[in-house]
Amino acid sequence: MQAIETIPYLLEKLDFTKFSPTKLLLISPKDQSTALRLQLSDRYPQAMFDRLTGDIKQFPVKNDYYDLIVAHWLPIKALKIEDPALLFYLLHHFLAPAGAFLFSSPGPEPLQVLGDLLLKAGYQDPVMDRDNLILDEQPLELFYGLAWKAAGQIPIRQVPIRQIIT
Predict the structure, then answer these.
(1) Cβ(56)–Cβ(84) below 8 Å
(2) Which pTM does this prediction carry?
């Protein structure tokens, strides 16, 4: 498996939401950004996309603007930030009041640490998940996170319990 093949695993985390974002910010390594955008365009055809590359501190600030921020293979070092907590904090300000932040990140950070960083940055109700993968013949833990900007704003789709169990 290659990193680009993990995009569907990331996006399936949105299957239980019912919101339709119109303004999305994408953060991903350059070689994966086109695939990420195409798969999100299929899911949200009306959406407009921005892409964050390089230094996040140089990105035009758009506070309370994006409905959804998707960071695949979260490139913390490429964004010129050494502290993931600062990155989560900055992205929190970019989100619209009912916005969501969805990300994947290779390990080895424990899920509890990532969840705590999201809470400290102001996110509500973070949901963390983990997959054990083989990437380029090497074992890898890939972490997923979905968190919301404001409590009580979480648009969850009603799914019959049979669909979840089967």
Answers:
(1) no
(2) 0.81
Q: Which CATH class is domain 3-165?
A: alpha beta
Domain ranges across the chain: 3-165
Q: What is the pLDDT of residues 17-56, one digit of tens each?
A: 888 899 999 988 777 788 889 999 999 999 999 988 777 7
Q: How many residues does the chain have?
A: 166
For helices 84-94 and 111-120, the axis angle rounded to 10 degrees is 50
Using alpha carbons, list the distances in angstroms from residue 45 to 23, 39, 42, 71: 11, 10, 6, 19
Cα 32 from Cα 96, distance rounded (Å): 25
Q: Are strands 124-135 and 23-27 parallel, antiparallel or unpaired?
A: unpaired
